[in-house]
Every structure is written in structure tokens, then in C-alpha cells.
Amino acid sequence: MFSYYLQLGLRSLRRNPMLTALMVMAIGFGVAASMTTYSVFRATSRDPIPQKSDVLYNIQIDNWGPENTKEGEPPPALSYKDATALLRANKAKRQTVTYPVGVSVIPEDPSRMPMRQGAYATGADFFPMFDVPFLQGQGWTRDDDEKHADVIVISKSLNDKLFNGGPSVGKQVNLDGHLFRITGVMQDWSPQPVFFDVPNTSGFNEGATVYVPLTRALDLRLPNNGNNNCIKDPGEGWDNYLRSECIWLSLWAELPSKADAQAYRDFLTGYAAEMQRSGRFSWAPNVRVRDVMDWLSVQKVVPRESQVSLLVSLGFLVICLVNTIGLLLAKFMRRAPEIGVRRALGASRRDIYAQFLIEAGTIGIAGGLLGLLLTGLGVLSVGLVFPEEVARLATLDPTLMLLTLTVAIVASVVAAFYPTWRAAQVQPAWQLKSN
Question: Would you state the torsion angle of the CA atoms of residues 195, 197, 198, 203, taken in this order, to the nearest 10 degrees?
Fold first, then answer.
């Protein structure tokens, strides 16, 4: 019976091509608008490291006091004093402090110009903590951190530029006049959102190509290439900057269990209490230990415009469905005599429901195919509405394609329920008598 009803549905659609085209366009445009904005929302709200997001924690300490913070929320980064003190305490399975730096890679070939590269100063634990994928070698060791070693990890794209993609572990790279030995070449890696450096990236960027040890970066006084927030002038010179209450460092800890997270939270509270007793803080301890998804939520990483756009597009889809309901109602009720004859010949209301819902499903399939085309165009055009670093994340992958078709079919069938119910209420006797 399904194939029979499908044939009836297709025949009915061909009978009223203008009405069919209007319904297909309504479904197609409504679904395309919602799926295009959903592709952006999905990309910006995803879990960037799902295999470990519940054991990685961002650490915050209020070193500014309630008069310099909003709604009791500690600053989003740490001062040098706090970050290094917590590193030395070594209360986590792994922990790393990170800040962005800007460096110039000077090629060995004097005819080539220096290349400015995005970089991070960090610790050895960064790579195993965040499951950074390597093509060659590996990250440096904790012993390298302790020895302030001149070592470096570079990305595949930089390795392609410097060594034509060949083996480079053990070779040297000149950064701002200092030679660093390569310990590993990683994939071009940049989880989106960039959870480990939200304060400097707002959650989205193309990633870094160079990673150097934090201890060596501090020795070389590599300046912070990100946000630098101070409640008062730190004074002149690098040493004054390190002693100040300026916040510019991100600290992440890997804590395998909830008990470990609570123990670290208690330790952090005790540390802040000690700072209060010493006279550095004049306020009660105010600390936070948040996992990846909580951190991204508090920092409002998902762009507000993507949330608003998604709601607006869903509203547009509802309007399109309301219009489709009206068109289907007019189409189905025009066939009341046909329905009356079918009922008189023995068709049940269930048969009427099956026939017209299958017909609506064919409209949904056609609308879904149109929606796929329009969604593809929409995904290519999101850069006109969203920033480039956000727009490039939106993609029309197989999952989104399947979802687009599914939403179109389900939406059209749902829209057909009321018109079908009205059609099923047609009284055969009245239709036969009046016709």
C-alpha cells in the first residue's frame, strides 16, 4: 500500500504544480535558514576535547578583590606570582601554565624573510594533557622545563615551510636570534573552541605553530602577546611586571576524579587564605576550579549572535510551516469529493491518514533537497554575518545533510496532521449526495 499511496501522492503533486512549488519552497527556505544557523551554533558550542573535558580544570584566584571584579567572579587569568606558586605546589596529576607570545622564525637561507608566527609559552604537561597529536617526535620533558632548555615543538605547516615536510626532530630553528632544538612536529592542531586560552582568543583562532618552554620564554622575557590586565601600573621593567598583580597567565590542571577536583579546590582555598593571612589579600578566599564545559559556559564563548540567529531562523521555520499547513489544508479539502468516494468504497480513516501523510512526506523530501542546496549556499555565506574565525567552522558535513533532510520530512509530516485530520472527517454520505 505504501507504493500505491506514494504514486497517488506524486500524481496529486503533479496535478497542482504551482501549489506544490509554493509548499516545497516554504519547507526548503525554512529548513535552510534553521540549518545554516544551526551549523554555526553547533560548531561554536561543541565540546572541544570530549575524551577529557571532565578531567581538565581551569584554575582561578581572585587577586584583585571584590571592588575590582563583577558579581564575585575571579579574574579569568592568573598573576605570575600565583601561577608559579601553584605550579611549584604540584597538587595535580598534570598542570601547565600558558601564555601567547609572538616570535619571528628566521630561516637559514638569508634570502628568505623572517616569518612572524603565533606561539605559546607553556610546560611539558601541555601535550599529554590536551592529547596533542604528533607526526614526528614528541613534546619536551619536565626535565627540560627544569633546565630551561632551548627546545621547541612546531606544527606541520611550519615544518613544511622550513624543511619541506621532511624529518626535522633534532634540527634547530632560529627564533628571534635564539636557536631552539626541535623535539617534535605536531599536527596543525587548534581545538575549537580554543578552551585553554579563552581570555586571549574569545574561544576561536587558527592556532599556533610554535610552542616553547615557559621557563625559557621567561628567561628571554618574551612579551605577552595576549591580554594584559592590571589594576594599577606595575612599574617599569620585566621584574616589576612579574611581581605585580597583573593577570596574563592561564593555569590548567588534570584531575582524574571528582575527589581529586575537590581536594585541589580545598588546596586552592587554603592557598588564598594564606595570602589573606600574609596581608596580600584583604578579602576572603575566592577561587574557582571549573572543567572545560563549565569554563566555556561561564566565559560565554558561544557568540550571542549565533544564539539569536538560531532562534530567529527557528521562528522563520515555524512561519513557513504555518503557511504550509494552510496550503495543505486548501489542497486536501479541495479533494473532499474524492475522499468521500474512497470512504464509501470502504477506505478507513486510517487509510486516508496514510495516503495524505505519505503525500506530505514527498513534499518534505523535495523541500529537503531544496533545503540542502540552500543550506550549502548559506554555509558558504555565513562570513557575511559572523566573524571569519567563527564562519570558517561552519561546514555542510554528512551529519548536517542527513539532519536537513530529516527535519524537512518530519516538519512537512507534522504540518500535514491537521489538514489530514480535517480530510479524514469528510462524511461520505454528504459528499455523494451533494455531488
Answer: -60
Tell me the three cell numbers of residue 426. Answer: 469528510
- Closest by CA to 120, choosing from 19, 62, 61, 207, is 207
CA distances from 404 to 9, 269, 295, 409, 411 (A): 22, 49, 31, 9, 10
Please check whether residue 294 lies inside any domain of the structure. no
Domain limits for position 351: 2-47+303-434
Query: In the chain, how many H helices and how many E strands?
Result: 17, 10
Give the predicted TM-score (pTM) of the model: 0.82
Structurally, the chain folds into a number of domains equal to 2
Cβ proximity of 76 and 199 under 8 Å? yes
Question: What CA dihedral angle connects 92, 94, 100 and 104, to 10 degrees?
Answer: 150
CA distance 280 to 274: 9
8: pLDDT confidence band, cut at 50, 70 and 90?
low
Asked if residue 223 and residue 75 are part of one domain, the reply reads: yes
Q: State which of 195, 229, 254 marks the end of a domain.
A: 254
Distance from C-alpha of 301 to C-alpha of 45, rounded to nearest angstrom: 8
Both 12 and 99 in one domain: the answer is no
Query: Do both 36 and 72 map to the same domain?
Result: no
- For residue 328, which of 365, 279, 298, 361 has the smallest C-alpha distance? 361
Q: Using alpha carbons, list the distances in angstroms from residue 57 to 46, 61, 63, 257, 359.
A: 17, 13, 19, 11, 53
Bridge-based pairing of strands 178-186 and 151-155 is: parallel
Domain-located, residue 265:
no
> Residues 212, 329: one domain?
no
Convert the pLDDT of each residue in 268-290 to its tens digit: 999 999 999 999 999 999 999 99
Using left for φ > 0, alpha for ψ between -120 and 50, and beta otherwise, residue 273 falls in alpha
Query: What was the pLDDT predicted at 336?
Result: 65
Instruction: Say if 176 falls within a structural domain.
Output: yes
Q: Is residue 270 part of a domain?
A: no
Q: Which of 254, 269, 291 is the last residue of a domain?
A: 254
Q: What is the Cα–Cα distance from 271 to 338, expressed in whole angstroms? A: 81
